[in-house]
TrEMBL record:
Domain MyTH4 positions: 136-295
Organism domain of life: Eukaryota
Pfam families tied to this protein: MyTH4
Comp. bias regions, Polar residues: 36-54
Region (Disordered): 31-54
InterPro entries: MyTH4_dom, MyTH4_dom_sf, Unconventional_Myosin_ATPase
Protein known as: Kinesin-like calmodulin-binding protein like
Amino acid sequence: MLIKIKRRRKILLGICWNDMGDILPKTSESVRMDQNPFSSSNGTTVPSQNSASNVDGDVYDCDDSYFVLPNSNRLSMSLPAELAGAIPLIDRFQVENFLRAMQKQINSAGKRVFFSRKSIGPAVNEKFTLEDMLCFQKDPIPTSLLKINSDLVSRSVKIFQMILKYMGIDSSDKLTFLSLDERIELITKLYKQTLKRSELRDEFFAQISKQTRNNPDRSCLVKAWELMYLFSSSMPPSMDIGAYLSEYVHNVVQGVKTDPEVQILALNTLNSLKRSVKAGPRLTIPAREEIEALLIGKKLTTIVFFLDETFEEITYDMTTTVGDAVQVLACNIICGRYCFRNTDYIKNKKTLRCGE
């Protein structure tokens, strides 16, 4: 009996002799059913996106030893603390398809390493995992990080290119930082791509959080966190991505070795996420003045006129809702009347602020 093993199938050739001395091959073929790497813990199978498994119209076949397929038990043991929130989202990420497409892209460019790891083992036996996929990289991505509608995959690739440009990364591997006007223009384009599409909002936050992990360049890292803060102020991710993102940002805020500037941006991001999740995404793209004010740390002011010909000046930013403005107005009116009646405060030129 001769056994010949091929990839994905086994063919058993049984050779028997008949009375005439002829050789009659008797073939029985058993085909191994591929197990979906994104099977959930309850045994149900989550279909993968066709757009991700077939990149540029052809299937890339490579050695499976390059990849470690996602498994909740394995992930819980191997992922660092800041990625613990990603464990319930295994079915949302298309790890194997992304890594295969990325490997193909890098091989065609003649490169070897494409993820910014903290430590890289021997090149011969290195394994690429979910943790690698969620690490900073300078190269464009060939497909989305999440399983999204096939019609949106090309847009997700374009979004990542804009993120790289905002961070100052171009094809020449040089950091080229943009002017304030160029940054605002690029941010507006990103809003046009993501604001009204929930799938692309989730994809954006997955991409930008990826660019904040193991980023070796401080100025580049700050720009990534700047984007995270800006967009978390106006459009929240979905509940599951939001839970992962909040846990990840919280770990960065609490990190002992976190850069002080990054820590401030991460804390602002965490607070903005809480507000935007409660308020929901904005209906319109933020105005240029709002974007600029958030980037430079400036508060905007506006004047509210009342029917009795009085007015109040209030401050606001990109995260301010109508409900927030009404509360501030009510507080200012109450505090103003109290100060007017209390002459001691007026004589001493003391200011009574809301909440005091």
